[in-house]
Amino acid sequence: MTISRANDPTSLDPAQQVSTGGGLETLTAFYDRLADLDASGKIHPSLATEWKVSDDGLTYTFKLRDGVMFHDGSPFTADEVRFTWQRIVAMKAPAAQYWSNVKEVAVVDPRTVAFHLKQASPTFLPTLAGQRGVYMGPSKACVEANEKTKGDWAAAYFTDHECGTGPYKLDTWQHNQQITFNAYEKYWRGWDGKHVQRFVQKIIKEPSTAQLLLTQGQLDLAADSLPIQVYQQLKHGEGVTVDSASTTTIDQIVFNLDKGPMKDPRVREAIALLFDYKAAIEQAYAGEADRVFGPIPNTVWPKIPDQAKRFDRNVEPAKRLLAEAGYPDGFTLQFDIADLNQWRNLALILESSLAEAHITVKTNISTWPVLFAKLSKPKGEKPFDMAGFQMWAAIPDPSDILMWWNTDATTVINPGWGDAKTDALIDGAQTETDQAQRSTMYEQLITTMNADVPAIWIDQPKALTAMRKDVHGFVYNPYYNGLLDFYALSKS
Q: Which of 5, 166, 186, 414 has the lowest CB atom count within 10 Å?
């Protein structure tokens, strides 16, 4: 099966690579997790067959699957789970952020391992089954055999090598051209049924090239997102199908609450009322998106308060609010976005929507790293008036999005919103294990956000994936956004 990706991986080390577009989308062919999430958010056994939680919520004990082998022939045991944790922490690798609540990983016996937490966490298990930073391996023997110096954890070697327990083994890698990987014959799930024996992952940067190769049958599946107009054309192409599925992603435009007119909640509410949400969904996604009214997607609990639905396009009340705030003749603002097709379209809608109230929008387009650097500046130093970007829940829990509205995240992506009260709700919900109480906390938080209007929440785009009609087994999983289940795919 031939698949396309837009970018060559920067690393295949699961400790170092935690984001799609940099290698995570490739290394998942080579590595497994202890548990997996399905598309509904339910957790299933993987390398662990079962688990139990202590009464105080501080210890998770896992029974491990027997007969699992790493690609170098090493057996997968409790010692290897502990070694994976030790390596990630010692390297201070990006994956370490997902293990920050783990105090100790203890080997009970070769098939049993216990995770001791610093504090009880309702999200520990879904995080362990999530898409980032929780893959088992590489094996201890493989790491020690490939260290340049003792204790370097073979960090350089695993940039372009692998040693996991996953269904496929790396074969060849021609940088910026293609990667090939073959079925691992000793994979623990076995090879009964229909599976792909060999993948060819081509690096195709131009969407038009991917479109042409798909229609010609030289490409089986375009794994990365394509412009909406390409999908519209492919829907009518012979031999090609486009899968559409719900996501846990939202488009949001945040206000800089420490700059100019954006300090005034009346101005923020006016802009939220001026924005043309219907036109945005049509122009940016050709209708392939759902409207959202709050900071979390419709597919994640709790329910957004009905009061939030007041934010629909309503020009005259918006003009009155601006006049009350002292801006009857409008003003000029700077809007920062990343260079992505949907955000260019959403920026055009923002510009035309706000022009009706004499607000001039000057859109500044940059790469995501540049935009992220601006978002990460301290409170009071962020250079934009408004900024647009996506948020998504990588686990079936609202904390994965709402945690970023803590004031501690002001130097990450929080635009300057929140106080001690809202922080207490966020922090409390991240340690409380009773879901009903957590839901109440999050409802209070979202109600406060709805009143303060720190952002415009626009839509929840669908995930579109183009493939040949003879490709089978593809299921989009919102909790593994941008990843493929290689083992599940087949061709007829």
A: 186
Ranges under pLDDT 50 in the chain: none
Q: The tokens of 451 are what?
A: 């009143």
- Establish how many alpha carbons lie within 13 A of residue 436's alpha carbon, considering only the half-sphere containing its beta carbon: 0
Q: How many residues are there in the chain?
A: 492
| 386 contacts 253 by C-beta, under 8 angstroms | yes
Domain extents in the chain: 1-29+167-246+463-492, 31-148, 249-461
Pick the CATH number of 249-461 from 3.30.230.10, 3.10.105.10, 1.25.40.10, 3.30.450.40: 3.10.105.10
Question: Hey, CA dihedral for 65, 67, 70, 71, is it positive or negative?
Answer: negative
**What burial class does residue 143 get, using C-beta atoms within 10 Å of its C-beta: 0-12 exposed, 13-18 middle, 19+ buried?**
buried
Distance of alpha carbon 167 from alpha carbon 342, whole angstroms: 35
DSSP 76: P
- 69: β partners: 75
**Pairing assessment for the beta strands 2-5 and 198-203 based on DSSP bridges:** parallel
Residue in the structure block whose two tokens are 């935009």: 371
Angle (CA) 16-20-26 rounded to 5° is 75
Separation of alpha carbons 301 and 283, rounded Å: 28
pLDDT in tens, 229-275: 999 999 988 999 999 999 999 999 999 999 999 999 999 999 999 99
> pLDDT digits over 381-412, tens only?
999 999 999 998 989 999 999 999 999 888 88
State in words which class domain 1-29+167-246+463-492 has: alpha beta
- Please classify residue 459 by burial: count the beta carbons closer than 10 Å to its beta carbon, then call 0-12 exposed, 13-18 middle and 19+ buried: buried
Residue-level pLDDT at 250:
95
CATH of domain 31-148: 3.90.76.10
d(CA 123, CA 300): 14
Whether 183 contacts 198, CB under 8 Å: yes
Dist. CA 199–CA 181, nearest whole Å: 5
**DSSP 8-state symbol, 249:** E
Q: CA 412, 413, 416, 419 torsion: positive or negative?
A: negative
